[in-house]
Amino acid sequence: MSPQIDKERVRSSFGKHLFSYTQHAVVQASMADELAWKLHNAHPDAFQRVFEIGCGSGVMTTAFLKRFSVGAYFANDLVEECRHEVAAAVKQHKGTVFDFAGGDIEQMPAFPEQLDVIISNATFQWLTDLPTFFQRLKQTLRPGAFLAFSTFGPENLHEIRRLTGVGLDYMSRDAVDALLTRHFDVLSCEESLISLPFRSPRSVLRHMRATGVTGVEKRSWTKSGLREFEQQYWAQFGENEQVPLTYHPIWCLVRA
Fold first, then answer.
1. Coil, helix or strand for 46?
2. Which of 122, 172, 115 is nearest to 138 (CA)?
3. Domain layout of the chain by residue ranges
4. Of 54, 40, 15, 82, which Cα lies nearest the Cα of 151?
5. Hey, is 78 helix, strand or coil?
6. What's the count of helices (H) and strands (E) in the chain, helices before strands?
């Protein structure tokens, strides 16, 4: 059973590692590129009003703006400092108006109106009430507008969960698809498994810390606890002098 999501801890964890995220979040970067590509295939034209949820250090922003011209770009993140990173990315595209609203997206009293598309990369797994949130997004989008997002499925970081008993309760692709079908025309909902190789279990922990995903639980490793974790990681998952860390991305593209 995963712990209740403490969004203040999530905010603190991502905020501390905001500047290391872009360098180390290689899977999230590839997810952003894939999401932008899928959206471009469905709609190769410009968008007038765009809202990005969970913009972070601007990985999705950059991938999106490589492919689309935008009139107004609205962004949100739990970490207020993300404003500066994303503003710098948008500033490179002349003529695009930028606005940012920091804070918990589930508590935001109002969203930008008459949106042509809402995008989000590797964020929705941190939300506490996805069914209600999808309903709210439907009310925000104009008819025929797009919602394009990526999240993670149940196999995500399964090595860590098996060894520590800690992890998020990720929804399956089918469960996400079923929720979306209540409110949207689902154009695609696809998944994949990605295994990253590391030289040691400690390298896995450093990678997770650098990408901020350790915000799910506050843990202080003892020497004996860390040693046991490393031994079990090698015993259960080690192969060819490497250990894996599994990611389970899900990409969804729907229309209001």
1. coil
2. 115
3. 7-255
4. 54
5. coil
6. 10, 9
Instruction: Enumerate the β-bridge partners of residue 101.
Output: 76
Q: What is the pLDDT along the chain (256 residues), one digit of tens a residue?
A: 344 677 877 777 777 767 777 777 899 999 999 999 999 999 999 999 999 999 999 999 999 999 999 999 999 999 999 999 999 999 999 899 999 999 999 999 999 999 999 999 999 999 999 999 999 999 999 999 999 999 999 999 999 999 998 888 999 999 999 999 999 999 999 999 999 999 999 999 999 888 877 555 566 788 999 999 999 999 999 999 999 999 999 999 999 9
Q: Which residue has the tokens 């595209």?
A: 93
The CATH number of the structural domain formed by 7-255 is 3.40.50.150
| Residue with tokens 């104009």, as numbered in its chain | 142
Q: Tokens in use for 36?
A: 């932008």
Its sign, for the CA torsion 221, 158, 209, 76, is negative
